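Marked as duplicate of an earlier ticket. Keeping the data here for the record.
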Amino acid sequence: MRAAAVVLLSAVLAACGTGPVRSVGTDRTRTDDVVTVNDRLYVTRSGGLSVVNVATGKVERELPEGVMAPDRSAYYAVEPGTAITMVRKLDPASGMELGRIAVTGAFDLPRAYGPLPDSISANGRYVVLVGTTEPSNFAVLDLREGKETSRAKLQGSFTFDAIDDLGTSLYLLEHPRAGTDLYNVRLFDLGTNALSPQAIVDQKAAVPTPADLARGTMGGIYHASASANMWHFGLYVNATKGPVVHALHMTARYASCLLDLTSMTTHRAAWTILPSPAHDRVFVLNAGSGAFASLDAATLQMAKRTFTVQAGREADLRGSAVVTGDGTRVYATGGKGILVVDARTLSMRGQYLADREFVSVMVSADGTRLYALDREGAISRIEPGTGRDLGIVAKLPSAVSIVRIDHAR
């Protein structure tokens, strides 16, 4: 089914939740180094996105809840409605509205696991919305053309998984049995507008029987994901096996393997996964336990390391990580302080500020400025090479993660 979409252009953001500039509370002394840096931090919070000016200590702008494009050049806010859902493309740097798409029906971003960056294809062209009144109803929008291209409406319980760069393959998770973590990976062919009859499993595995499909061929709770070199890597935590990575080839439409990380089963919430800047590797790590793996996105060969860290407490602290633009360093949170890894030698470089717990970390494009968000919403600027705390630049109690840094010259 293809629905018509109405495309409107607007030069100025009229109603995206922008409020007056306000001061951000801090409880530490701001050093001169912090004050003179003209950075803007884009911080997701409960219910939206805040743009914080580091030099002034003020929130310049607040945007509604949405999702950032993979290259962070655009921010998409979805306004669900009963008859019409509006998707608004915003410029994160200015808050200006660059365009909008009206979609017939009640839709929103995929929220089975929270707003997923995966709802936008890796090349930033397609976005998938999920029906709010009919959960197994999906709409695919072409963000370049500004229109809806496809719609999938299915019987049963399905949640969104991923979409390919061509807008032809919509991957879904089928949940055949309520109350369990068992699922099937299914392909909805957007070219033929039909659900493929077979579940996608490891290509070395036997074809699932009807009983297998009725039970669920895979098991685990979705945790995080990353895309690299035509592969989509989903990190799941299995109740008995621990963490596993499912590798799905986006264009060839098959699963190659289940990458087992079960040697490390502690600090389950702290696992995270991210691609290298060149998208030739994927890093899987747990800052709470010191587990680290580097996965070649072409061969799927994996190198594992176990670092000796000051172990964090067993808690619900979720992991986050960022890699520098030159691909040489990885900074990760999820345990005590910030774990620093040399991405070339796969060796641990340090553990910064181990007396604190952080929930998110972000590094500037040139690798010279590092920011970390702690449990209480305090954002600190940290010297990347030494781990020296340069002071708190902002405090946002509802902050969730730092997703972008801008530097105004």
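See parent ticket for discussion. Helices lie at 32-35, 210-215.
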